[in-house]
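B., you asked whether I could sanity-check this one before it goes into the benchmark set. Here's the sequence:
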Amino acid sequence: MDNSALDALICPVCGLEFMDVLPGENTLACIDGHSFDIARQGYVNLLTGHGTKFTHDTAAMVAARDAFLEAGHYAPLADALAGMVRPVLAATGAAGGGAAPRPMVLDAGTGTGWYLHQLLDRLGGGVDAVALDISKFALRRAARRNPGAANLAWDLWQPLPVEAGRADVVLVVFAPRNAAEFARVLRPGGLLVVVTPRPGHLAEIAQHAGLLGIQPDKEASLAASLASHFVLESALPVSIPLHLSPADVANVALMGPAGHHIEVQELERAAAALPERTDVTAEFMLSAFRPR
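And here's what the prediction gave me:
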């Protein structure tokens, strides 16, 4: 990970800043001496004590997500994300200059790091990134995919190990939303971007794949849940026509929340009964919020 990304972090034990990691070091230490091992895969587990009760994604769920996303099915969603955050980061970079911090993206619930990688690639560099997730299986892949980011094992429902007012963009793609902490870490004028599925998302295969239903008032519920800290600025619907193989259908079912409950063998049997290609539509909403 780049030391410039570490500049945005604070120790979860004492709240003090971390020191730079020198070549060959395998620990991340704060100026008060609290240290955390850097895993050989490149991520750092900052969780202390009893950790979290939040259920992390399993190795099978993570592998399915990686296979599905790497096939490029959701590339149009990555394009839309880049278009939404580019003006915010460009304005920060232009106004910074000198020794001012570089623009920074906080990816809350980074998963395998695919969306963050796509975003950074489209932005063309010059942006720091902090990536948080609770699953060590996901972070192993995320750290390989985004080695310059600070990839951290963390519970999003806990106070985030990030300085107040440091992030220019907080990105939340199908992940928990801690409104108070997102508002704390965003700079004034920063942007919170939340990606959620819309009603009708993958409806054509929902029954075959055992997908969980989507509440019809999801967008209104999202805005209400963040209203104490954020104002909705814009909402962009994104529809992606897909032509999925049986393996794709199995992966998209296993990679999401339903993956915690699906019986894999039953899923594989259901997918095997599908035609060679199934036409479905992925439906997303990109909601942009500004701090109050």
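One thing to flag: The chain has a mean pLDDT of 89. Otherwise nothing jumped out at me.
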